[in-house]
Amino acid sequence: MVLAGLLFGASWAPSSLAQNLCTGTDSGKVACTVANVYGLGGLSTNGQALVQHNFFNSQPTSFFLNLTALNSAVGGQLGQLPLVSPASGITFSFDKALGVFVPMQYNFGSVLSERSSTIGRHKVLVGFSYQYFTFDSLDGLSLRNLPAAFTQNDIGSCSASSAATAVGGCAFIRDVIVSSTNVDLRVSQYTSFVSFGLTDRLDISMAIPINNVGMSVTSAAAVHNNGSDNNIQFIDPTTGQGCLPGPCFHRTFSNYTGATGIGDITFRAKYNVWKGEKSGVAVGGDLRVPTGDALNYLGAGAVGVKVFGAWSRNGRIAPHVNAGYEWNGSSYLAGNITPTSVNGTTPAPTKDNLPAQFLYSAGAEVGVFKRLSLAFDYLGNYYINAPRIAPSTLQELPACSVPPPPGQTGLSACNSFQATGAVDPIFQQTKGSFNTSNAGVGLRFRPFGKFLLTGNVVIKLDDPGLRAKFIPLAGISFSH
Question: In CATH, what number is assigned to the domain containing residue 336?
Answer without folding.
Answer: 2.40.160.40
